[in-house]
Amino acid sequence: MTELAKKRPEFRNINAFKDLTTYRMTPAAWVSILHRASGLIMFLLLPFIIWMFDTSVSSEISFAKFSAAFNIGIGFVPGWFIKLVALALIWSYLHHFCAGLRHLWMDVSHSAVNKQFGKTSALSVFAVSIALALVLGAKLFGLY
Amino acid sequence: MSVNYGSKRVVVGAHYGLRDWLSQRVTAVLMALFTLALLAQVIFSKGPIGYDKWAGIFSAQWMKVLTFTVIISLAWHAWVGVREVLMDYIKPVGLRLALQVFTIVWLVGCAGWGIQVLWRL
């Protein structure tokens, strides 16, 4: 083995605080990691999603309970917190949806797989998902 | 699709992740179409949406069948995705197995609950 080959450095462990903070993330990288994060948020909040489905469709009484959870609160949880969680889910869904369409587009179109499209499509994902999340969030919190 | 059982099992090489990749895409398209179908019904309903209109959307038989399919799709899609995330970030085998078992229990449980709600409508 030559001297050079022996000294070849190996970087196996990425330190979350020392290394990750030095990464310069491109828009496509942000879309990618947030695709995972939003998926995980929806996965973990799945019981809450089904609870909303259950209470909103089961009966008139449960529907009233559903509305009250958002307007007044439920148990020790205030209504604004339920709304905030719902907004997190709305954003997660929108981001995951838009980033997913971007994925599908790149799967079927070879001409879409290049640096330029990667950047512009990533920015479009943010533009659409954040704008829609703001509009729906404003509606949710009764701003209009 | 490559053979993944018996003596002719393909253990390495290309196409190994094709099934997961393809099923994640197919389930994603199904859920996206469901989103549009639900959204259309909400947008084109007249007047404010109360309990009757909201529950009415899901009580139509075709919508029940579609929603059922989407619940199954969602569990499958999430399983592929979460498994991928666990394979990337969780290296100790024991912990990864435990989390994968938790993921399956979580998804099957939630899917069961969702289907129960749907079927008593």
From TrEMBL, chain A:
Record keyword Iron present: yes
Regions that span the bilayer: 33-53, 80-101, 122-141
Superkingdom of source: Bacteria
CDD domains: SQR_TypeC_SdhC
Annotated positions binding heme: H96
Alphabetical GO biological process terms: tricarboxylic acid cycle
This protein's UniProt keywords: Heme, Iron, Membrane, Metal-binding, Transmembrane, Transmembrane helix
InterPro entries (UniProt xref): SQR/QFR_C/D (IPR034804), Succ_DH_cytb556 (IPR014314), SuccDH_FuR_B_TM-su (IPR000701)
Subcellular location: Membrane
Pfam family, one: Sdh_cyt
One cellular component term from this protein's GO annotations in UniProt: membrane
Cofactor: heme
GO molecular function, one term: metal ion binding
Complexes and interactors: Part of an enzyme complex containing four subunits: a flavoprotein, an iron-sulfur protein, plus two membrane-anchoring proteins, SdhC and SdhD. The complex can form homotrimers.
Record's function text: Membrane-anchoring subunit of succinate dehydrogenase (SDH).
Protein name per Swiss-Prot or TrEMBL: Succinate dehydrogenase cytochrome b556 subunit
